[in-house]
Amino acid sequence: MRLPTSRAVKSTALTAAVALAFALSVAPILHLMATVVYRGATVVVRNFPSILFDIPAAPGDHQVGGIGPHILGTALLTSIAFAIGVPISLLAAVFTAEAIRRWERMVGRWTRLLVHMMLEFPTIVIGLAVYGVMASITPFVRAFVPGFRPFSLLSGVVALVLVAAPYMYLQIEDGLKSVPQHVREAIYSLGASRFVASLVLLRYLKSTVYAALSIALARMVSETAALFFTAFGSNVYPPLDTDSLFRPVGSLTLAVYTFGLSGYENWIELSWAASFMLLLLCLTLFGLTKLLLRGERRGLRGLR
Amino acid sequence: MRASTKRTADLFALNSLFNAVLILSVALVVAVLLLESLPMIYRDGIGPLVTSVWNPAREEYGFLFALGGTLVTASLALLLSLALSVGSAVMYAEFVPPSLRPVVRNLMDLAASMPSVIYGLWGLRVLSPFLRNHLMEPLSALGLSGILGTPSPAGTSLLSASILLAIMVTPFASAIIRERLLAVPQHVREALYSLGLTKPEVVLIELRYIRRSVLTAMAVSFSRAVGETAAVAMVVGNTVNPNFFRVFSPGYTISSLIADQYPNAEAYYYMAPALFYAALVMFAIGLAVNLALLRYGETR
Amino acid sequence: MDYAVYVKDLWVSIGGREILKGVNLEVPRNVVFAVMGPSGSGKSTLLRTLNRILDLYEGVSVRGRVVVEGIDVYDSRTDPPAVRRLVGMVFQMPNPIPNLSIYDNVALGPKINKLVRSRKELDELVRWALEKAYLWNEVEDRLDAPASKLSGGQQQRLCIARALAMKPRVLMMDEPTSNLDAVATAEIEKLIIELKRDVTVILVTHNSFQASRVADHVAFMYDGQILEVGPTGRVFTRPAHKLTERYITGKFG
To answer: What 3-state class would DSSP assign to C19?
Structure first.
């Protein structure tokens, strides 16, 4: 008993189209990863470990030098932004999820709405806006802090906080909302204050919270566009003094961008090396997130 | 007893300060966009949206070419990723054996979370030359360059940007579609098969069933493509191209225009306001897509 | 060997677990044939084997011979969709395609299998099927409404109409009334008895009283095997097997 040929042919053709679309969406990704690993690892291995500490060689030089300032920049930007962004988003999410009174619920609703909106801002817009603010306050701030500049580590940190905070906030708020009511009642019935009870709730959601933090960290590490006019980029180590916060810094992503677009072979090699390091970092954070979310049915926002 | 209730409630209320920080940040971002672009809006009105003359020396900033580039690249990317993401989601949900699914899913999820600047580097150094040699040059040789433009030596072009964007947004769109395909109830699937439908015929009906999710996925793809900066700025060629529909030629998008021109902005009076204006337009496009989604799509 | 369904030494395992252990079955034409047994005895799996709906599940292995209306179902030259077109199926949970209209639910099968030549023929077929299922009077003025708007009993009759519209030779029903109330159940049972004029009905039920009310022949399944088969009157009055007796008297299952 066979199907009519026309239907069989049509079905086979549709199946083939599906397989082709799948191949076309996966192949570039595999090629990209393979290229980054191959080209990046070659440069890193050949220049190990100086590539981790040196500053870039002059463009066109036969040596590549290193991307030390960019690694340091990424480390500084993300760690400071993380330290600032985590408490803000965590506590704001707790407030929104546990709001009871009328004014509390209203504040919560507005936060949610606006954070959703911020999630949709292109990150270049966030960077541009941060620059706009920093540039317009510069004349006033300089009266107190003479070294203040809009292209700076500080601006970069603010931009990264604004990029990553919405993700943390929404994930943790979603998590808190999904806590079964009987668990919530049990915790509150222990007689703890609302503040303490909400912290206990966060502990109950431990793996969700950690996963949200890990995703946010990955966002900060991968961000490029928001840093263009804030951290700005720099190929040298900044001197350590009272003005350190107000100097431009580089980052791995900015290194990939500027060195990749340059016409010099040795800088392009640095760009591949920086890509490779970024890929490793993101792969680690991705694995960590997946591990934390193991067993949970739905993925979190921003993971995909 | 009464006193202690009051005190703890106050401590909780302190958290609202952090809500205020978030609310104020968003408000500030929007306010700065508006304020900083006001001088340009005041001077030229909608002029910059309808002219393609970018001449900082004469303080002329028509960015129609960038707006057009954004719309062309995002639309092309949307069309390509519609085919790619529906196809790969169907493949995942209907043909990949469940034991292999985690491998595919993790790969796609990883692809979705990779830094866009890495895509940019690969797009610049691998994809653009490839497209130039194997697609754009042959087609130009056939005489299409009159319509589609002439490729640059590096292959950077609006087309390269579109294809790179399609590759980048497909993992997101595909994830949305595949989850909904997997959520089609088994009893509905059984009903369809029991009528003697072949697998592809069943899939077509399932896709009709989840069409709102497909729409959602497409809107998400589009607004991501509109806002993407680092990767696009690396492959689009960064050239003022008033004929932005000639996709073999290099061009600009709004995001790459901002990224590329901003460092020069301080040398001119109106360039910064013009770029803020452009950012405002890009923001408005994204907002429009999201409002449409709220109306016709499904809530995620 | 002129049976509607003929099953010989059928073994089915799912995920390494044996579900059917050597089932033999012969179903004559134009009867209501009930398969009863406690849950987990393999009734539903047996039914899903006959039209290869079982192919949708992971880790299934089938050994043995299944012949439906002269077609060797598991022959490598047989296309499963072509078998399913001859074997209608009604499920435990009423499962109209939720986003399709009442009309389209019934019309889908005939359209895809090209059973009709014109829109007029299709209209007539849809009407015929809905009338057969005693649903026409209730839906004739709202054929374009989504199927999900119907009540549970109506949805199940729509599913029967959907199956009938394919003009199947065999109609399989997997506990079709277990999600319905008493009134809807009585309607469906009446319908089942009438349907045997046109098709062979295989009814799976865990309700022995339902089997005794509608079936001409019954089979009793237990732990993946058919313990007893026979005319309904004989099985219910003089069960040959101890377990059958205990089951039909409601002592277990």
So the answer is: strand
